[in-house]
Amino acid sequence: MPKEKFYITTAIDYPNARPHIGHAYEKIVADMIARWHKQAGRDVFFLTGTDEHGQKIEKTAKDAGKPPKQFVDELSEEFKRMCSLLGVEYSGFIRTTDKKHVKTALDLFQKAEQKGVIYRGEYRGLYCVGCEAFYTDKDLVDGQCPTHKRPVEEVKEESYFFKLGAFQERLITHIEQHPHFILPEAKRHEILNRLKEPLRDLSVSRTSFKWGIPLPNDKKHVMYVWFDALTNYLSGVSYPSAKFRKYWPADCHLIGKDIAWFHCVIWPAILMAGDLPLPRTVYCHGHLTIAGQKMSKSLGNVVDPIKVVESYGSDPLRFVLLRDVPAGSDGDFSESALIDRNNAELADALGNLVQRSLTLVNKNFQGNIPVCGKLTEVDNELIAHIPDWKALDDLMQNYRWSQVVDQIWQYINRCNKYVNDTEPWKQANDAERLGTILYLLIENLRIITIFVAPIIPKSAEKMAQQIGLPMGKLRDAKFTKKTKGRVNAPEVLFPKFAQKTAVASESVIMPGPLDAFGKLNLKVARIIGVELHPNADKLYVLRLDLGKEQRQIVAGMREHYKIDELEGKLIVLVSNLKPALLRGVESQGMMLAGEKDGTVRVLEPRNAEPGDSVTIEGIVPNQGQITIEDFQKVVMTTKNQVAVCDGKPLKTHAGPVGVELGDGAKIR
Ligand code: MSP
Questions:
Q1: What is the pTM assigned to this prediction?
Q2: Sign of CA pseudo-dihedral 57, 59, 63, 65
């Protein structure tokens, strides 16, 4: 019999910043589900990836002074690295800039055109760059984007449209006839309710930006991000190859609640237009909050999953997210909850059970797994508590992973109770009874290892190695009297962590662009002397007046400024950079300049005085010294001829710091 297949996908993430813990959460849930189905003996394909086109990426790349492809290449790697550190074992990683993806998106677009459900018209809408989405007046809150709470732009442009309305009846019928198509149930109701209103046609192309897939027959248009992004689920399994035919339709699209509409309405309509079968389930998970608040850069509470793993390892993070966030609901992440769960349920409950059992087998039976003797009532009771793997599998097939985790830990606790009830350390005189108790413990540990492997895979592997038995499949997770072998010495599986103080517990917060800026101490300086560097063609040696002191710096400006253009000029100096010898001459700081398309212009703190501070509102200049590596982490650019960092202007008390360059210059 060929193996049953199971195809699961996550949303593909926007690589416009480094991954945060919300991204990690979705990948961890998907990985647990995928690993479970693998252990159930199914042929699993698990797809994840990055969604790389669109105006927002184009703009963020420009602000970072990088070509968009280079920008997404670098960040996409961070998402892969996150998966690898979390033990997320995907089978495919799709990037929407991959050739095979572009081909697939175009193919689907053409199919829809051939069906007559795409036409050219004029788009008028209220657009939020942050969401990459259009809103109607009634979606806005106080006239602003409901998510980003900032003004939207009124946009009018030629656009191609997809006749979403043509699929409305079929969609409603499909959702009504397939109770598992949208999960959880509450989301299904919400979508069905929204479908009572007539569907507006969907704008599927743009002329206002370039970073996207050009339309086959009208190259001034690029495909609007969602049409492009959603087709990743087909290209990710090499549409239209044999592999695609094997895995499609997807069994599960696991996505966050914010993008349910795109997956439950727009995506199925696109598939209908392409005459392709619909996915079996779109599962909409909840969102993580941090201490009850939504994560956001401006609140400075974005948690970096990579830092969490560096501090605690991947399994404690996987565990707390799978254990504490109820399937389908929002949940909170905190470092202290992670520490509590780790200490109580991983270290004390599971780690201790392994440790105690292996120590006793080593001590009393020289490591040999003893023979199972006559079973008593207490033994049979424990055996009766072993969860039925088929029942757990049934729960998993219905995406009730929280219940599965809960039942497994109840079972682990039951095993600990058995140790306390049977007190094996008091049975030294009765070798058969002691052997039977220890046999039961090892046999239950063998079963536990199978059950916990999808949740805490790295620890499960170590457990299997310590117990000295190969990792089984789910069907092996039942009691037998025939297990034989030798256990190894126990090693600590889950180190305990001390609870931290409130301040220290910010250690997993991701630094924002302004944190790097906060390391700088920028000062206004006047150039009072310019000389040629004795040993380098491109360098000047400049004397600077900083009001209370004078300094000397070396600057690579000879190709860009004549001596008399620099003399007397006000500039911005990185005043706390560690002094360095540049071709034999000491440089006591660095002057800031922007570069765009080969043109270099210095930053101009107009109307300021030598010695004045240059900073961003709300940031106090750093008094300590920094290295060149610290400086290189700061990303500054230009906007409307002003120097900015993270969109905020650099200022002196006399006003913003100017740069005579177009937007998107790189400031160094
Ligand atoms: N690129 C689109 C998805 C296209 S799928 C064809 C996108 N990207 S995203 O990077 O903004 O979000 C990726 C996934 O992460 C989404 O499913 C989203 O719901 C999820 N999360 C974003 N923030 C989250 C939390 N705070 N908590 C949990 N999941 C979160 O949307």
A1: 0.83
A2: positive
Q: Which two tokens stand for residue 150?
A: 């900032």
Quote the CATH superfamily of domain 5-285.
HUPs (3.40.50.620)
Domain 513-667: homologous superfamily in CATH: Nucleic acid-binding proteins (2.40.50.140)
Task: Compute mean pLDDT per 10 residues along the chain, 668 residues long, and list them.
Answer: 94 96 98 98 98 93 90 97 98 98 97 96 83 78 83 89 97 98 98 96 91 94 94 98 98 98 98 98 96 79 93 97 97 94 98 97 97 97 98 98 98 98 94 97 98 98 98 98 97 92 59 82 97 95 96 96 96 96 96 94 96 91 91 88 90 95 89
- Residue numbers annotated as active site: 20, 23, 128, 131, 145, 148, 294, 297
Domain 345-476 bears CATH identifier 1.10.730.10: yes
- The alpha carbon of 615 and the centre of ligand 1 are apart by a number of angstroms equal to 33
**For the chain, domain boundaries:** 5-285, 345-476, 513-667
SS3 content of the chain, % helix, strand, coil (to 5): 40, 20, 35
Say how far apart CA 476 and CA 649 lie, in whole Å. 63
Q: Calculate how far, in angstroms, residue 451's C-alpha sits from the geometric centre of ligand 1.
A: 28
Residues 6+ apart with CB under 8 A from 641: 658, 659, 660, 661, 662
Q: How far apart are CA 282 and CA 185, in angstroms?
A: 11
Q: Looking at residue 604, what DSSP letter applies?
A: B
Pocket of ligand 1 (CB under 6 A): 11-14, 22-23, 25-26, 51, 229-230, 232, 255-256, 258-259, 287-288, 295
CA nearest ligand 1 atom 18, residue: 256
Question: Could you check whether 345-476 and 513-667 share the same CATH topology?
Answer: no
- The residue whose C-alpha atom lies closest to atom 22 belonging to ligand 1 is 22
Residue 14 CA: which ligand 1 atom is closest?
10
Are 75 and 15 a contacting pair, CB within 8 Å? yes
Distance, CA 13 to ligand 1 centroid (Å)? 6
